[in-house]
């Protein structure tokens, strides 16, 4: 079978692969604890369901305008005014099948072969692969001090005449940190001055804790939407717990939205009407659903941080938002005879039936990403099992499901 070099160079999505492994183990009756998956457990907002069901019951389920139905765009315009203090026109918005497709469409629209895109580590796994898929070159910038906060001087150094865009995700998947407002101010100014697109992936922007806020890039530019280099990507997957509905959007200048619309027209035609109706229902319905989810995640964050403190050699940066946390497990690699985070993650799945995602996938070897989007019980049990598997001073015996296991490797 012949396949293109580019296609062969694209790695699979580790999180989706882990989900599949966990599903298969569960199907075999194994009591797997999932600290890998990035989706909240809540039911979809009732307003989303009703809006979608109302559309379905008309039986009139057809193509829509490529860039999204006008009523959803109206809801997104309102959302942008309420949350970003920006007035945008329908022509500044394209609705896509998830924020993932938003980012891909956007990169497709702006990248020439060999153009560079700066990605800040730790980063969401899909950014580098998507950049490669449009023949661009991902340029990874790592905080030198091992913190999760990028430094402007490193970004300046990484920028070249080929730099077309910088992708920024705050609060950040996988670290959970929020980038400080003065950093956002500096990077906006840098991008506006240099003519580099600043792609703000705001998919978690309201899942923030302890009274923190994720300051939008728009706050630091006086340029209007047609002239600013700041582009916003958002969607309903995370804030409304609607991962399965696959609706996201981009806010950008009109010519860019027009080009992205042409691209989308040739690929998917449009996002499915029932899902657009659901997103509209979520955006126009009671926004307390978002606050409830935020409160649940803040509580879960407190629980996981508390539990992780019982693993004595772990370094944990307390997440300020999202539903992820990325502790430094390097001190435990030897205990498990793992050489790296992939082996450690496999070890924990095999021995303790706990799913984690290796830090390597996010550009941080030696770390594991843990999701606390699940239940408090799962978080507590998952960390207890990890402690048992890794810490020689923890009790040798544990019950996993109804099986008593005795640790014989430490
Ligand atoms: N950006 C980030 C940082 C994400 O974590 C995710 C989902 N894991 C997405 C974008 C994609 O979201 P969607 O479900 O809307 O495609």
Gist of the model:
With 410 residues, this protein is α/β, with parallel strands linked by helices.
Give a topology summary.
Layout: H1 5-9, H2 14-27, E1 33-34, H3 46-58, H4 70-84, E2 93-96, H5 99-110, E3 116-120, H6 126-133, E4 137-141, H7 152-158, E5 163-168, H8 181-194, E6 197-201, E7 230-235, E8 248-251, H9 254-267, H10 273-284, H11 288-308, E9 324-325, H12 341-352, E10 354-355, E11 357-358, E12 368-371, H13 376-390, E13 397-400, E14 403-406
Parallel strand pairs: 1-10, 3-4, 3-5, 5-6, 6-7
Antiparallel strand pairs: 2-8, 7-8, 9-12, 11-12, 13-14
The structure holds 4'-deoxy-4'-aminopyridoxal-5'-phosphate (PMP).
Question: What would your notes on this structure say?
Answer:
Helix 3 packs antiparallel against helix 10, helix 5 crosses helix 9 (254-267) and helix 11 packs parallel to helix 13. The longest helix has 21 residues, at 288-308. The chain contains 13 helices and 14 strands. The strands form four sheets. A seven-stranded mixed beta sheet has the order 2-8-7-6-5-3-4, with helices on both faces. A three-stranded antiparallel beta sheet has the order 9-12-11. A two-stranded parallel sheet has the order 1-10. The protein is of the alpha/beta class and 410 residues long. The protein starts with a helix and ends with a strand. The chain is globular, with a radius of gyration of 22 Å. The mean pLDDT is 95. The chain binds 4'-deoxy-4'-aminopyridoxal-5'-phosphate (PMP).
């Amino acid at each position: 079978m012949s396949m293109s070099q580019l296609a062969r160079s694209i790695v699979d999505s580790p999180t989706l692969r882990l989900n599949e492994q966990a599903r298969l183990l569960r199907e075999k009756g194994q009591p797997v604890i999932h600290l890998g998956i990035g989706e909240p457990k809540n039911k979809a907002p009732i307003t989303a369901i009703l809006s979608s069901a109302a559309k379905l019951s008309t039986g009139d389920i057809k193509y829509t305008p490529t860039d999204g139905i006008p009523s959803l765009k109206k809801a997104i315009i309102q959302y942008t005014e309420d949350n970003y203090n920006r007035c945008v026109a329908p022509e500044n918005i394209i609705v896509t099948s998830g924020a993932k497709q938003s980012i891909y469409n956007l990169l497709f629209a702006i990248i020439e072969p060999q153009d560079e895109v700066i990605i800040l580590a730790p980063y969401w796994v899909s950014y580098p692969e998507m950049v490669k898929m449009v023949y661009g070159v991902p340029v990874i910038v790592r905080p030198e001090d091992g913190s999760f906060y990028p430094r402007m001087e490193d970004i300046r150094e990484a920028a070249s005449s080929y730099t077309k865009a910088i992708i920024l995700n705050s609060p950040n998947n996988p670290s959970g940190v929020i980038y400080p407002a003065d950093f956002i101010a500096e990077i906006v100014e840098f991008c506006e001055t240099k003519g580099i697109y600043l792609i703000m992936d705001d998919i978690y922007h309201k899942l923030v804790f302890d009274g923190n806020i994720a300051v939008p890039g728009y706050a630091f530019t006086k340029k209007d939407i047609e002239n600013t280099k700041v582009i916003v990507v958002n969607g309903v997957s995370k804030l409304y717990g609607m991962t399965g509905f696959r609706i996201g959007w981009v806010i950008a200048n009109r010519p860019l939205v027009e080009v992205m619309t042409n691209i989308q027209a040739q690929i998917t035609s449009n996002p499915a009407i029932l899902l657009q109706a659901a997103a509209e229902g979520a955006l126009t319905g009671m926004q307390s659903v978002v606050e409830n989810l935020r409160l649940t995640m803040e509580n879960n964050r407190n629980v996981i941080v508390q539990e992780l403190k019982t693993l004595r050699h772990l370094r944990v940066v307390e997440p300020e938002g999202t539903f992820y946390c990325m502790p430094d497990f390097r001190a435990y690699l030897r205990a498990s005879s793992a050489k790296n985070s992939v082996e450690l993650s496999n070890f924990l799945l095999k021995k303790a039936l706990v799913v984690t995602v290796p830090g390597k996938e996010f550009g941080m070897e030696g770390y594991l990403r843990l999701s606390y989007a699940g239940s408090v019980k799962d978080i507590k049990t998952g960390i207890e099992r990890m402690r048992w598997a890794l810490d020689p001073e923890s009790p040798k015996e544990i019950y996993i499901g109804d099986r008593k296991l005795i640790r014989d490797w430490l």
